[in-house]
Amino acid sequence: MDWLTTVDHKKIGILYLLAGGLFFIVGGLEAILIRIQLIKPQNNFVGADTFNELITMHGTTMIFLAAMPLLFALMNAVVPLQIGARDVAFPFLNSLGFWTFFFGGVMLNVSWFTGHVPDAGWTSYVPLAGPTYSSNHGIDYYVIGLQIAGIGTLLGGINFMATIINMRAPGMTFMRMPMFTWTIFVTSVLIVFAFPALTVGLVALMFDRLFAANFFEPGNGGNTVLWEHIFWVFGHPEVYILILPAFGVISEVVSTFARKRLFGYSSMVFATFLIAFLGFMVWAHHMFTTGLGPTANALFSIATMLIAVPTGVKIFNWLFTLWGGSIRFTAASLFAIGFIPTFVMGGVTGVMLASAPADFQYHDTYFVVAHFHYVIVGGLIMGIFAGLHYWWPKMFGRMLNETLGKLTFWTFIIGFHMTFFVQHFLGLLGMPRRVWTYLPGQGFDTLNLISTIGAFLMGVGTICFLINVVATSVKPRNAADDPWEDGRSLEWSIPSPPPEYNFKQTPLVRGYDAWWKEKMEGNREMTPAEPVGPIHMPSPSILPLVMSIGLFIAGFGFMYHRMYLIVIGLVITFGCMFLRSVIDDHGFHIEPEEQERGVHA
Amino acid sequence: MSAHEQAEGYLPHEPEKATLEGRNKILGFWIFLGAETVLFGTLFSAFIALRHNVMDGPTPAHLFELPMVFAATMILLTSSLTSVFAVQAMHRHKVGQMIGWLIVTVVLGLGFLGLEITEFNNYANEGHRFSTSAFSSSFYTLVGFHGGHVAFGVLWISLLIAQIFKKGLTTVTAPKIYVSAIYWHFIDVVWVFIFTVVYLMGKVG
């Protein structure tokens, strides 16, 4: 019950981790089924319809319900600690964001049980996804589920922007913020400016499907290319929403385990902003073959190639951080170091794809599949694994087993390269993506077999991680405050896991790498910026959960045209908003005596 | 310092910014309006892309009744002014005046909504329905989203007026008033763009 009403960012982080982990496993199983179908030519493991559903749900689940929540897990668990805050700016909204994401994700996956599964690809291009060609309820689950989940993401973005601007500890200037906090800040900006575009696209598609609107109906003056623009105006920044936090994690992990200050901190910050800015300027490189004309293609081509410059800055900064450092090869640092060459490979194919004339050849082949799995799995998922191994003791008070962690790393990275490296060649040989089977004798057979074996190896890696989690959870909670001993930022100056108020006294930040600086000066704790006193905490609330359930019910009402469900759902949601507005939350205080006893999260 | 500690004592000049909670709320709301800008920006883009595709339905030049729309525009612009008066009254701690101006704002908002509903009704009678054409769908979606925002604002500000009657002006209620005022200005600004892009550009073709 405590977990359903919590507004504590650390607990919400753990909830995001659980839910995101669950959806990651679901999406991973879908991937395994896809790979089993493609293990040999003319395989009959799943039908063509099921295959379409699998690729759609795999993509949608992994992007919206696995990758993003896992990032939200890390940012909830770490960012307030890194800036020396007691909580986020809006604890209630934080909880609401989690529950709307969760129920949106549940709604999407309910489709497996009602038999109408989204099957138009994760991009849901019209007219395929329009009412004419998708007349069952499959796409409705996509448009409504993602709208509900999108509310949660948007709230998270607003919350973390406000938190990082307003809640920093004294002395924590912007240019002293840890790199992870910086990337989360920029990611939040991207979320705030990209997600509303997706919402409009989904609303328009929903109106087309449910209320006979004509946004994307060419017969009535609609425009299908409009969907592509709206989707990718959101979709391309989304790529950077995913990868920037991974860059942040890698920066923290590399610098901690090289035991050196992050090389080129200011250029890192600048590069992050530049990537975010350019990220909004390149959406049409997903549409080179749509026929926008040579001028548009040339501009978007050049803008896309420009992104390689700030990304290269980051790669070299990590290399120079490692250079001359006394590197410790823990599981976390292995993931971070493995990330660097893997991500470079994804970046190189990105520049290849950015060339519009060449893209006409690569378009819709496995080359594209290989490229985006290199940046998302080889980039983001490796970053998340690095971050989880690194911050696990801070989140749970227990160290993950290093041997199992290294086993996870080696099985995962070898499996990963086996799966996706060969897909570059499959694409160059002409194997189209999203096709459920292929004929023998085209040179596809062996490469597909290797790819499927690799996918199983990645599955083994994930299972190793799960075993590690279970084995660790039964061990005593004995992680030290600074378990890696080389921690640099504020989260390592407080107990693992931190008490629910995080900092007994708000710390005074005296420079970049605040905790490292204190340690180098021989201090055993941060210099406090305030005397010991009662700490004000927000009250827990059940309203976010109820509000999200209301939206969930209303979503089904819209989908199946049941007026009473719409009314019930919206009354619940708006009723909760009403209660939230009229009932003042005075919160409560934790007195200094209680702090001495140690109120743990 | 927490919100309720201050609420009982002295009320500062700008009560909405007196607490960290209040400052967070205002900053967060500005960020939210940034997101809303993208939302309406995308709706405008869709409308601009589709506005010439009227199919068999009436054209915008034939359809739009500028005098009525102009009246609605003036009503909404005036309501923005009255909400400024309300916030100024709040800064002077004149609770009665503030409530008065908020009530005027709500009434003007209701007037705007009344005109808009009449207008939509007239259009529908002339064969300009939601599913007539891409133009009609994007028109009703864009203008309807704005109207929905006005309706939400009317309900919200009414609820805040009731809260002020019950709780008085405190450092908890002041940020709510302030934030609802910037929301109100925002939907006003959106309307200025709708008036220009949808109605004026529709009239000149």
Description:
- The complex is a heterodimer of chains A (601) and B (205).
- By secondary structure, chain A is mostly helical.
- Chain A folds into two domains: 537 residues, Cytochrome C Oxidase, Chain A (Up-down Bundle), CATH 1.20.210.10; 36 residues.
- In chain A, 67% of the residues lie in helices and 1% in strands.
- A two-stranded antiparallel ribbon of chain A has the order 1-2.
- In chain A, helix 3 packs parallel to helix 5, helix 6 runs parallel beside helix 8 and helix 13 packs antiparallel against helix 14.
- The longest helix of chain A has 35 residues.
- Chain B is mainly α and 205 residues long.
- Chain B has a single domain, classed as Cytochrome c oxidase, subunit III, four-helix bundle (Four Helix Bundle (Hemerythrin (Met), subunit A)).
- In chain B, 80% of the residues lie in helices and 0% in strands.
- In chain B, helix 4 runs antiparallel to helix 5.
- Chain B is elongated.
- Chain B starts with a helix and ends with a helix.
- Classes of the chains: A mainly alpha (601), B mainly alpha (205).
- At the A-B interface, helix 5, helix 6, helix 7 and helix 18 of A face helix 2 and helix 6 of B.
Characteristics of this structure?
heterodimer, A: 601 residues, mainly alpha, Cytochrome C Oxidase, Chain A, 2 domains, two-stranded antiparallel ribbon, 19 helices, B: 205 residues, Four Helix Bundle (Hemerythrin (Met), subunit A), 7 helices, 80% helix, 0% strand, elongated
Short structural description:
In chain A, 67% of the residues lie in helices and 1% in strands.
Topology summary:
The complex is a heterodimer of chains A (601) and B (205).
Chain A lengths: L1 H4 L3 H29 L10 H35 L8 H24 L23 H29 L12 H33 L12 H34 L7 H15 L14 H13 L1 H15 L8 H24 L1 H7 L3 H31 L5 H28 L15 H29 L40 H7 L14 E3 L5 H17 L3 H20 L5 E3 L1 H6 L4
Antiparallel strand pairs in A: 1-2
Chain B lengths: L2 H5 L12 H31 L9 H4 L2 H26 L3 H31 L8 H34 L5 H32 L1
Helix pairs in contact in B: 2-6, 2-7, 4-5, 4-7, 5-6, 6-7
